[in-house]
Every structure is written in C-alpha cells, then in structure tokens.
Amino acid sequence: MVALSPITHERPSAGVVYAWSGVAVMWAFWVSFVIFLSEPRALMSWWPLPTIDQTGAATLSLLAAVVDLGLVMLFGIQHSVMARSWFKERVIQRMPGAFERSTYVHMANLALFTLILLWQPIPLDVWRVDHRLLQQALWVLFACGWVILFFGAWSFGIDELLGLAQMRAWRDRRPPPATRLKTGRLYRWLRHPMYVGVLLGVWVTPRMSMGHLLLALGLTGYVLIAMRYEERDLMQRFGARYGRWRGIMG
Description:
250 residues; globular
C-alpha cells in the first residue's frame, strides 16, 4: 500500500491581496511625497495633489502651523504606538499574526496621505539658493536621500518590512519568517539607513520655506525619538549581539 501525503490546503488569497494593496498605496505615497517636497515645475500644471508650498500668502500663519504640527504628530503617533509591543498585545492580537504588518502599512498610508492632503502651506522663505550649480548639487543630494531610503528598506528585507513575506507564509500555512538582526548590505555602513534617507530628503532643498522647515523639524524630532525606542527594543530582543554591532557601528 502506498502512503498518501496529506493535502495541505492554502488559506484564501484575500490576505495576499490585502498585503499587496497596502504596498501599492505605499509606493504611490512615496512618489507623491517626493513631488510634494520638490514641486517640479514640469508637473505642477496637472499634478492633482497638494504640495508643500502650493498656495497661500507669504505670511506666517499660527493656525496653519498648529494644523501642520498636528499632522506630523498624527504620523508620529501612528508609527510609534502601533510599533510598540503593548499595542500589539492589547489591540492587534485578535487578528492573525500575518496581518499585523500589513495593517501597520495600511494605517501608515492613511496617516501619510492625510498629511499631504490636509497640509497648510506657509511659503515664507527661510533660505533660497539661486546659484544654478548649487541648486543641482542640492537636488542630487535630495535624490540620494530617497535612494538611501529604498536601499535601506531593501537591506532590511522589503518583503518582510511591508508584510508580504508574513502573508505568503500565512497563506501557505508555513511558519512566519524568523526575526533576524539586520547587519548586512547598507547596514554595514549605517545604523539607521532609512532614517538617514528620510532626513536627507526633507532637509536638502534649494528653497526652504517656513512650512517645509516645520515639517523637517517635526520629522527630525520623530526620528530621534523613534531611534531611541527602536534601539531599546532591539537590545531587549537580541541582547549582547545587538550591543556588539552597535558598538562597531559607533
């Protein structure tokens, strides 16, 4: 008698669709955010979304500043609170574990697009670079920031970062991918490559308006706080191994 192998049924593919839809919207956001910050003249005649300085008189508006700071805080709270273990244990534990990261991506998309759509321009100049070669050099550095962000995500494992790997494992009834300390690729040179990329992207510009400065300061504050909590969590999870790597990176 020939023993028959047990049939392993896949779970519904709706979970994978859920994960991929979050990824698609996330890519749309990053394209929109680069345009939001850079305001390329070639696109402004037809671009349908707001940009950082698209409207408004060149005056400092207290109400606009309050709204903009609130939008940055909304982004920071969403990113920080949903990443904390206590939130995962109390709020997300009722859903399958594979949905956790994809849900985080969907909520991040909501917070980030809300920031773009509700942003209040404060177009008062803080600095402006008119020299053509310096402008081009700054735009190159601006582009480098987003390239570093992308390669930082790739170095981390973009499938895992965006929840695709977890969802495919859930669909196929396989164990979720093991959490590993990321020390390869871009992490050989930078402790926090994705944060470095974002900070370059928001700070490097030939024209810094008051609204842009407010966004840059708010995101810098978020990064400094997030780095502290992220490193604490990594130390708790990986212990001496993370401590040694952090010491090597300086």
